[in-house]
Design goal:
Elements lengths: L1 H16 L15 E4 L3 E6 L2 E6 L7 E4 L7 H6 L5 H11 L20 E2 H22 L7 E8 L3 E8 L10 E9 L7 H17 L3 E8 L4 E8 L2 H13 L4 E4 L6 E4 L13 H20 L4 H7 L4 H9 L3
């Protein structure tokens, strides 16, 4: 019994140390996603190219939680729009549960088929929203939007056109919106206009894709409200919304390149690794490199400077057997 309790305590400590997203807005209430264990394939059905489970037996499926996949929308957006890339994504996370091909009110998860054109459309919309968010974050919205018409009547109006730059999903597509700026004398800035476009995309993408529930928050010792995405596609739109509003930022693990959500609901802003495994892997890499430098005649002091460590730490590394 004591050994079991020590194991539980150690596991709890590991969770605290690795700063897993225990207080994420997704919480443990997020609806899990079905993934066909034997993967997915593209097939023609009645002349429609669709992605379907390789084995349609419902019992032969695993469950995953997209909430445990931060930066999922970035990964999806960076896919090449090919059958092979989409199948690889589905094999890991399941079908998107695109509206019109999913029945959330019956509490069903996608086990049927989704057409190629629907995946391409979802990829295009997620891709352009992700790219525009990134452009706004880097203060480069001018790459996307420009004023096309200025009208000055009783109220100032301005027409702006957004063009998706080359290299992004939907490249070359344009969209024009009219902005009524009232009696303001200052012109609209590209940042404000780009944010308005992204806001409309994000709101449309999240429409009907999430629900609000009350859950128990153990830390606060009270019930709190949580927004729960209902589908895999909805979870990606929810991630974009939170990134757009500044609730979450993203960095990459220095070892495995997995995405780390930063902020109050995720990791510290200075977090470098996704967990203990990558931390230890990076440490072993540094020890090996330090020993190689020492074998080539480098001094302990110079090695310490290279790794931004103290000579005592480097000396300890060099005496390790592994």
């Amino acid at each position: 019994m004591a050994d079991r309790q020590r194991t539980v305590d150690r596991r709890r400590a590991e969770l605290r140390d690795s700063e897993l997203v225990a207080r994420s807005v997704f919480s443990d209430q997020f609806r899990t996603q079905s993934v066909a264990k034997r993967g997915y394939v593209w097939r023609d059905a009645d002349g429609v190219r669709s992605i379907v489970p390789a084995d349609t037996m419902l019992a032969d499926a695993s469950r995953i939680s997209p909430a445990s996949e931060p930066g999922l929308f970035i990964e999806f957006a960076r896919l090449d729009p090919t059958e092979e890339a989409f199948v690889g994504f589905a094999n890991r996370f399941g079908l998107l549960a695109i509206p019109d091909y999913f029945e959330p009110d019956r509490n069903l998860f996608p086990v049927g088929s989704e057409p190629w054109v629907a995946w391409v459309d979802a990829h295009r919309k997620i891709g352009r929203a992700s790219a525009l968010w990134d452009s706004i974050s880097k203060d480069r919205p001018g790459d996307w939007v420009r004023p096309t018409v200025q009208r000055f009547h009783k109220r100032n109006r301005s027409d702006w056109t957004l063009t998706v730059p080359s290299g992004f999903a939907g490249a070359g597509e344009t969209e024009t919106r009219r902005f009524d700026i009232g009696l303001q004398s200052e012109a609209l800035s590209p940042v404000i206009v780009a944010q308005a476009f992204l806001q409309s995309w994000v709101n449309a993408g999240n429409d009907g894709q999430a629900r609000v529930v009350a859950v128990w928050d153990e830390e606060r010792k009270s019930h709190v409200s949580r927004v729960i995405p209902r589908t895999l596609l909805g979870s990606m739109w929810w991630q974009i919304l939170r990134a757009f509003t500044g609730e979450t930022a993203y960095a990459k693990c220095a070892v495995c390149n997995s995405f780390l959500p930063l902020g109050s609901d995720g990791f510290r802003r200075d977090k470098t690794f996704c967990g203990n495994t990558c931390t230890q892997r990076d440490h072993r890499r540094k020890v090996k490199a330090a020993k190689s430098m020492a074998a080539n005649g480098e001094s302990v002091e110079l090695i310490a400077k290279h790794f931004d460590a103290t000579p005592a730490v480097i000396q300890n590394w060099l005496t390790k057997k592994k």
